[in-house]
Write a structure and sequence with these properties.
79 residues; mainly alpha; 73% helix
Length: 79
């Protein structure tokens, strides 16, 4: 793989991850009425598989959103 293709792939992966973090953050803000920092923190914990547990109680919508967010291929490393 040449340098140009590697840079293109890295850029696309970075943009995909940024979009997933943004989607997760906005989702938690609207579904669980979290602050921006709480929503971003929750998204990063879910996507990084740190799994600190439910540090803030969630409703059913938030739990289902977490499942969908975690099952996204970009978050699991599968293409």
């Amino acid at each position: 793989m040449d340098v140009k293709a590697s840079l293109r792939k890295g850029t696309l992966l970075s943009l995909g991850l940024a979009a997933l973090v943004a989607l997760g953050t906005v989702g938690y803000i609207f579904l669980e009425d979290m602050t921006l920092v709480d929503a971003l923190y929750t998204t990063v914990v879910v996507l990084s598989t740190v799994g600190l547990g439910a540090w803030k109680p969630m409703g059913e919508a938030g739990k289902l959103f977490t499942i969908l967010l975690k099952l996204d291929p970009a978050s699991t490393g599968y293409r």
